[in-house]
From TrEMBL:
Membrane topology: Multi-pass membrane protein
Organism encoding this protein: Acanthamoeba castellanii (strain ATCC 30010 / Neff)
Major localisation: endoplasmic reticulum
Places the protein is found: Endoplasmic reticulum membrane
Key word Transmembrane helix present: yes
The protein's name in its UniProt record: Reticulon-like protein
Residues covered by region (Disordered): 1-25
One CC-aspect GO term: endoplasmic reticulum membrane
InterPro entries noted in UniProt: Reticulon
């Protein structure tokens, strides 16, 4: 009997986690799927109106604000008209919302402001070092990056770049989650080749040779 019981234990232990893990994964990701799909649809519709419609970003936001005001006005005045016809006491349907404070808490906002100020200060610090050529190699790096940005900006319009960033924000996390090992491996190989060519170029510069000797 012991030889018959052993395979049963192995089967139960092997099938248990595999059947439970997808359920836990589905439970953890299910609430975010409808919201992500809604935001993705709204974003695509937004870019579609800007690209194919006669809209700019400012005009589109202005029309959205007008639509919101129109819907809120119809709802509030419709409630007023219904109360008048039924001879009931009228109360603004948004009065309950007005009782709740709609302000930004300083404690919640301060960490984000501090992080933003820190990023701006770091950017200014690096920009100053690049412009003053305190480190020629670093300034050359910045020049190459700016040149690459100019090439990309000349090849694609601003709307295309914004849509690419928007699409990557939704697609990239999922792709990286499923193909993390392959992406890390390819990234490591590409980074190694890039560093190899970078060291080769820097070694040809006079300052690069001097730093290498030091």
């Amino acid at each position: 009997m012991s030889s018959d019981e052993q395979p049963q234990k192995v089967v139960v232990s092997s099938t248990g986690p595999s059947s439970a893990e997808p359920a836990e994964l589905a439970d953890s990701t299910a609430p975010s799927i409808p919201m992500s799909a809604l935001l993705f649809g709204i974003g695509n519709f937004f870019f579609f109106l800007i690209t194919c419609g006669d809209y700019t970003v400012v005009s589109l936001f202005a029309y959205l604000a007008l639509a919101l005001l129109f819907v809120a006005g119809v709802y509030a005045n419709g409630t007023l008209l219904r109360a008048y016809l039924k001879k009931e006491k009228y109360e603004n349907p948004f009065s309950a919302k007005l009782k709740n404070p709609f302000v930004l808490a300083e404690g919640d906002l301060k960490p984000h402001v501090d992080a933003f100020v820190g990023v701006v200060n770091d950017f200014l610090h690096l920009t100053r070092h690049a412009i003053y050529f305190t480190d020629t190699v670093f300034s050359v790096k910045i020049a190459v990056i700016v040149w690459f940005i100019a090439i990309v900006g000349g090849a694609f319009s601003g709307i295309v770049l914004l849509y690419g960033i928007f699409l990557a924000a939704f697609v990239w996390p999922r792709i990286y989650q499923e193909k993390q090992a392959d992406i890390d491996r390819v990234y490591g190989i590409a980074l190694a080749h890039l560093n190899q060519y970078y060291d080769l170029v820097i070694s040809k510069l006079p300052l690069g040779k001097k730093k290498k000797e030091e």
